[in-house]
Amino acid sequence: MFSRLSEKLGDIAHKLRGAARVSEADLDATLREMRLALLEADVALPVTRHLMSEVRERALGAEVAKSLQPGQVIIKILNDVLADVLGGQRRDLDLAKIPSVILLCGLQGAGKTTTAGKLARLLASQGKKVALTSVDATRPAAREQLQVLAGQVDVPYISGEGSTAAKMAKSAVKQAGSEGLHVLILDTAGRQVVDDELMAEIKDVADTVAASERLLVLDSMTGQTALQIAEQFHAAVNMSGCVLTKTDADVRGGAALSVAHSTGVAIRYVGTGEKIDAFEAFDPQRMAGRILG
Ligand code: GDP
After folding, report:
1. ipTM score here?
2. Residue 28: half-sphere exposure toward Cβ, Cα within 13 Å
3. Ligand 1 neighbour 271 (Cβ under 6 A)
4. pLDDT per residue over 68-79, tens digit each?
5. What is the enzyme's main class (predicted)?
6. For residue 142, which atom of ligand 1 is closest to its CA?
C-alpha cells in the first residue's frame, strides 16, 4: 500500500536529507513537489491543501532555515502531519462492555465477512471469548460463509432469530450475553452501491444493539469514491473506525488518507491478504514512516 506515494515522497525526503540549508523559497518548491505527489496518489484536494498548509506552518514555526539539519526537520514535520491525519496515536477497540458488540458494515465485496473472521481470530488469540453472527436477512449464503469461517477460526457462530436484521441482531446479542461472551462481531448485509434501504437497515441494527464499535470495512482499491462511501456510512451510523482491506494490492493509498482526514474516522486495522492471519492493527506513526520510505 502507498507504494506510489511512498516512492514520490521518499525522493523528496532523500533530496532534503542532503540539504545543508533550506530557504523559504526552497521550502515552497518542496511543498509544490509534495502537493503533486499527494494528488497523484489519489489524496483528495482539500486533504492535500490541509496537509500542505500544516507542513508549511509548522516548518516556518520550527525555523527550518536556521536549523542545523533543515531537511530532517521538514521530514519529521511531514511525518507528524501525516500521522495526525491518519489518526494520531494507535487506539485499541473499546471492549469494556460485556458483551461488546462490534458492528461491521460496508459495501458488498469490501471484505466484511473475511474481516469478521480475521478480527474474531485476533481477539480470541488475545484471550477474549468471541462469537460471530451475520444479520444478512436476505442472503443465507452470506450467513453460511461466516459460519464456515467461524469454524475455521474456532469461535462459536450464533444464529440470530427474526425476520429483520435488527431482530436477528437483538436475539444474537441476547444469546451472547447469556453465554457470558466478551465480544460479538456482527456482520451486516452489503450492497453493490450505497442505497437508502441499506442505510436504514444498518442504522436500525446499530440503534437496536448499541454497538461499542461501529467499523466501516473499506476496500483500499476503491480510490476516490472511498471518501463518498465513508461519508454516507458515517452519516448513517456514526462510525467509530474503519478497517482498510486489500492493502496488499498495489494501490496509491491516497484514499485512506482522505477518508481518515475528511470523516475524522480513524483506521483501526488493515487487511494485508486473503489468508485469515493477514490482518494487523493500524499504527498511524508506523504508516506515516512507511509512506515517507
Ligand atoms: P464481503 O462481501 O464484504 O463480505 O467480502 P468478502 O469478505 O467475501 O471478501 C471479498 C473478497 O475479498 C474475497 O475474495 C476475499 O478473499 C477478498 N479479501 C478480503 N480481504 C482481503 C485482503 O486484505 N487482501 C486481499 N488480497 N483480499 C482480501
Report:
1. 0.99
2. 3
3. yes
4. 677 777 778 888
5. hydrolase
6. 4
